Amino acid sequence: MPRHASPIFSISTLLRLLACPLSALYSSVMNIRNWLYDRKIFRAQDAGVTVVSVGNLTLGGTGKTPIVCELLRWAVENHLSPAVISRGYKGEFETKIARVKPGANPAEYGDEPTMMANLFSGVPIYVGSKRMAVTRELLNAHPDVRLIFADDAFQHRRLHRDIDIVIIDCTEPLKNYSVIPAGRGRENIKSLRRASCIILNKVNLVSPEQKQNVIEFIDEILDGRSTPVIESEYHVRRLIRLDDERAEELHEFEPVTLVSGIGNPAAFEALVAKNLDVKKHFKFRDHHRYTRGEFEKILSESRDRKVKRVVTTEKDAVKLREFLKRDRQDGDFFWKSELRPKLSLRVKWLYEKILERVH
Question: What is the pTM of this model?
Answer without folding.
Answer: 0.91
